[in-house]
Amino acid sequence: MTDPMTPNQQPILQGRQLARLYHMAGQHSVRVLGGLDIDILPGELVAITGKSGTGKSTLLHLLGGLDRPDEGEVFFRGESLKGASENFLARYRAEHIGFVFQFHHLLSDFNALENVLMPMTIAGQRDSQRGRQLLEQVGLGHRWNHYSSELSGGEQQRVAIARALANRPSVLLMDEPTGNLDEENSAHILDILQTIRREEGTTIVIVTHSLQLASQCERNLVIGAL
C-alpha cells in the first residue's frame, strides 16, 4: 500500500517497505504488512483500518519505535530509525510519541492527575499545572483526584489521552481507542482529538475497526488482506 502525499509537504513519519515476521511454533513464519509504504503528514488525523490479522497494530508499534521491522525502515522527520540503539528509541518515544491503547493501562494506585503526571515525572519535568490543564482539556478537571476504579470507561480513556499528551508529543498513536466505548463516548473522544489537533498541531494516527470513526478522519488508510 502506498498512500498519496500532498505536494510540497515533508512527512513527519514514513515507512518504507515495512514487514514484520512472526515465528509460529512448529509452523512457518508469518509475514505481515507485506512491504508497506506509508507517509503521515504533520498535523494530520489519519485512520488505519483493515481486517484482523493484517498488521494494523504492528504498524503502529513500528512507527512508534516499540518494535523493529524485519524488513524496511521507519523515518521520523526524514531521519531513519534503522539501527537505532534502545536508548535512542526510548528517547524517541519519550520526546516525540504519545501512545493510547484500547485498554487504558492506568495505574490503579494513583489518581487521575498522578497518572497524567507520570510521563513528566519519568522525564524529570513534573508540571502539575500542565497536568491539570490536560485534564481540563479532556473534560475531567473536576475529577483530578479520582482513582481509575472511580471513573467510567470513557473517563479512563480520556485520562489515558491526557497522559499521552503530557510531554507534548509531535505524534499521537492510538490503537483502538474507542473499541470498548459506546457511541456517545466514542464521539466525545473524537471531539477531543479534533480539538487537540487544532490547538496543538499534534499529528494523530488511529488504528480502528470503526468505519464511523474512520470516516470522520482526514484520511483512511486501508491495509488489505495479505
Global geometry:
globular
Strand content: 15-25%
Counting DSSP E segments of at least 2 residues, the number of strands comes to 9
Q: Could you tell me the CATH topology label.
A: Rossmann fold
Poorly predicted residue ranges: 1-7
Strand order of the largest sheet: 6-7-8-3-9
Look at the helices and sheets and give the structural class.
Answer: alpha/beta
Number of helices: 7
Average pLDDT level: 86
The H-and-E topology, N to C, reads as EEEHEEHEHHHEHEHE
Question: CATH top level?
Answer: Alpha Beta
Largest sheet properties: 5 strands, parallel
Number of self-contained structural domains? 1
Architecture (CATH level 2) name: 3-Layer(aba) Sandwich
By CATH, the superfamily comes out as: P-loop containing nucleotide triphosphate hydrolases
**Helix content range:** 25-40%
Distance between the termini: 11 Å
Rg value: 17 Å
Family: Belongs to the ABC transporter superfamily. Macrolide exporter (TC 3.A.1.122) family.
Pfam family, one: ABC_tran
Domain ABC transporter: 13-226
GO molecular function: ATP binding; ATP hydrolysis activity; transmembrane transporter activity
